Amino acid sequence: MRIWAVALNTFKETIRNRILLNILFFAIGLILLSLVVGEWSMYQQVKVIKDFGLSAMSIFGLLIAVFIGIRLMVQELEQKTIYLIISKPIRRWEFVLGKYLGLSITLALNVLLMSLALWGASYLMEGYIDWSLTPAIILLYVEILLVVAFSMLFSSFMMPTVSAIATLMIFIVGHLSDFLMEFIALYPDKGYHWLLNAIYHVAPNLEKLNLKIAVVEDLPYDSSVLTFGLLYGFSYILILLIITAIVFERKDLK
Amino acid sequence: MKKAIHIIVMISVLIGLAAMVHFSQQRMDQDREIHFVNRSIEFLPDGKTLRILSMGYRGLVADWLWIRAVLYFGRRVMDEDNPYYLYELYDGDSEKIRTLREHHEQFHDDGEAYEEDGHDAEHAQKKSDFRKILSQVDADIPQPPDSVFVLDQKLISSLYRFESRGLVDGVYPLIDRVVTIDPHFIKPYIFGGVYLMLETGRLKESLSLLEKGYIANPTHWEFPFYLGWLHWMYVGDLETTHHFLLEAVGRKDCPAYVFRLLHGLTQNLNRSEMTWLYLEGLFQSTDDPDSREQINQLLLEIRQNQTELLDP
User: Fold this and answer.
1) What is the distance in angstroms between the Cα of A181 and the nearest Cα belonging to chain B?
2) How close, in Å, is residue B209 to chain A by CA atoms?
3) B28 lies in the same domain as B171
C-alpha cells in the first residue's frame, strides 16, 4: 500500500513534467513524419514507417529514462522532500520501488500513446492495424524499464551528469554485446578476452530485447524469444532494484 | 514616447535581419552548384562498421541509407525530366535548361521521341556527345552474348542500352551498405541487381549484390530467379541459369512462370520464347510502376516483332 502511494504520487509528478510532454510530442511528430519520409523510399513506405516508429519509441524512451529517471531521485534530495518522506513510516526500499513503479506506469502510458501513433500511421498505409508489432513493442518497453533501473541505480550514488553518461554508456554497451562475442570469435588469440567476456556477462544484452527488424520484415522467430526476453529483462531489473535499494538504505541522508 | 521609439527600433531591427536572411539565402541559392558527383559516399564507413555503429537501430539506418540511395539514383538517372541530368548536359545554363524543359513538357511529355531537326537536333547532339564521354568512363559493360543475336535488334538495344551508365556508380556502394546493415531488406537487392543493371550495365556489381541476397535469404525464390536472369541475358551461361532456376522452383511461394521457364529451358525452347517468359516473370514479380512500364515496353517490342523473333 505504501509502495502504491509513492508510485501514484510519482506518476502524478512525472506525468506533469514538461520534458516528458516535449519528448512525447517529438516522438509522435517523428512517427507521423515517417509518413512523408516513406514517400522517398521507393515503395517501402510501410517498412520505413514501422522502422521509424519503433526506433522513435526506443530513442525517446531512452531520453525519458535519462532525463526523468535520473531526476527522480536527485530531485527529492535537492528539494529536501526526501526528509519528509523518510520521516514517515516507510522503508527506503519501499520508496525506491514506489518511485520505480510510478515512472514505469508513466512510461507505459507513453509507450501506449506512441504505439497508437505508430499503429495509426501504419493503418493509413496498409488499411489494417498490424498487431504483429506488439511483441517488439513489449520488449522495447522492457528495454526502457531496464535502462530506467540503471539510471536510478546510478543516480543513487553519482552526480546527475555522471549518471546520465553512465546510463548512456550502458545503453551503448548493451547494444554492442553481440559484437563483443563476434570479436572474441574472430580474434581468439587476444589476451584481454576475459575482460570482454566479463562485460558480455555482466552488462545487459539489450539486443536480446530487440525484435524490431524481425517484426518489421516478418522474419520468423520463436515465441520463446518473447518469453525469455521478458524473463531476462525482469530478472535483470529486479537485481538492479535490489542493488539500488541496498545503496539507498546505506546512503547517509543527514 | 520612449516606448514607441523602442518598438519602432525593434521592428526595424527585425525587418533588417529578415532582409539579411532573405538576401543571404538568395545568394547561396545562386552560388550553390548541383554537384553531379556526390563524394559524401566516400566518407561513409563500410557496411560492417555501420552495422556495429547502428546498434539497435539497424532497420532505421538501413532505411535512411536506402532513401539516400534512391535520391542519389533519382538525381542522376538519365531522364529528360531530371533537372540534375539537364544541368550536367548544359553545363548549368539555366536559361537553356528552362527552355528545354518547357519544350519537353510541350512536345515529349507522352514519351514521344526527339526529332532530328532544329531544337531537338541540338539536344540529340548534346546527348550523343555526353553519351560518348560516359562510354569512355565506363567501357566495361556487358556485350550481348553470341547466342542473344538471334533476338530482335530492337530488343537487344533495349536490354543493352544502359542509358545511365557512368552516372549512378555511387549507388552500388550505398546499396551494399544497406544490405550489409540489414541483410533481410529485399528491395535494395532487387533494385540494385536487376533494375539498376538495366540502367547501368554494371554486371559484376549486380551479380555480387544478388549473390549476397541469395546467401542471406535462403528461402526467397527471387534471388536464384534473378541470378538466372542475369546469367541468361548478360553472361550467356545457360547451364548456370538452369542451375539457378532449379534452385528457385525448390523454394517457397515460387510462382508458376518460373516452373514454365525451367520447363522451357529443359525442353531447349528458342531464346526468344525464353526471354519472353523471363520478362513476363520479371513483370509479375515487381510492383514498381516504373519498372513494370519498362518491362511492359520490352514485352510489347517482342510482340510487335513476333514473326522476326522466331528462331530459325
Assistant:
1) 12
2) 18
3) no
Q: What are phi and psi of A3, to 5 degrees?
A: -65, -45
Is B149 in CB contact (< 8 Å) with chain A?
no
Q: Is B53 on the interface with A (CB under 8 A)?
A: no
Q: Enter the C-alpha cell of residue B269.
A: 525452347
Decide if B47 is inside a domain.
no
pLDDT at B303: 67
Do B26 and B143 reside in the same domain of the chain?
Answer: no
| Cβ–Cβ < 8 Å for A10, A32 | no
One domain for residues B147 and B270: yes
CATH code, B295 = 1.25.40.10
| H-helix segments, chain B | 2-31, 47-53, 58-76, 83-89, 94-103, 118-137, 153-159, 171-181, 186-190, 196-200, 203-216, 222-230, 238-249, 256-266, 271-285, 289-304, 306-309
* Residues B301 and B153 occupy one common structural domain: yes
**Domain extents for chain A?**
2-250
- To the nearest whole Å, the CA of B108 is away from the closest chain A CA by 25
Mean pLDDT, chain A, rounded, equals 87
- CA–CA dist B258, B279 (Å, integer): 11
The three three-digit cell numbers of residue A14, written as one number: 512525472
B contact residues 57-86, partner A, Cβ 8 Å cutoff? 57-60, 62-63, 66-67, 70-71
The total domain count for chain B is 2
pLDDT score of B43: 75
Q: Report CB contact under 8 Å: A176, B191.
A: no
Q: What is the pLDDT of residue B269?
A: 58
Which tens digits make up the pLDDT trace of B4-13? 899 999 999 9
Q: Nearest-CA residue of chain A relative to B53?
A: A176
CB distance from A59 to chain B under 8 Å? yes
Q: DSSP for A187-211?
A: -TT-TTHHHHHHHHHHS--GGGG--
What tens digit of pLDDT does each residue of A50-97 get? Answer: 998 899 889 988 888 888 888 888 888 888 887 887 777 888 889 899
CB spacing of B59 vs A217 below 8 angstroms: yes
CB contact under 8 A, B57 and A43: no
Domain span including residue B200: 139-309
For residue B300, count other CB atoms closer than 10 A to its CB: 10
Q: Please give the single-letter amino acid code of residue B252.
A: K
CB of B273 less than 8 A from some CB of A = no
Query: Are A48 and B63 an interchain contact pair (Cβ–Cβ within 8 Å)?
Result: yes
A243 Cβ contact list (under 8 Å, min separation 6): A153
Do B145 and B292 belong to one domain? yes
- Gap from B217 CA to chain A (nearest CA, Å): 10
Amino acid at residue number B198:
L
Write out chain B residues lying below 8 Å of A143, CB-based. 56
Q: Closest partner residue to B66 among A44, A176, A207, by Cβ?
A: A44
pLDDT digits (tens, 9 = 90+) for A155-204: 988 888 999 999 999 999 998 887 888 788 877 777 778 888 888 888 89
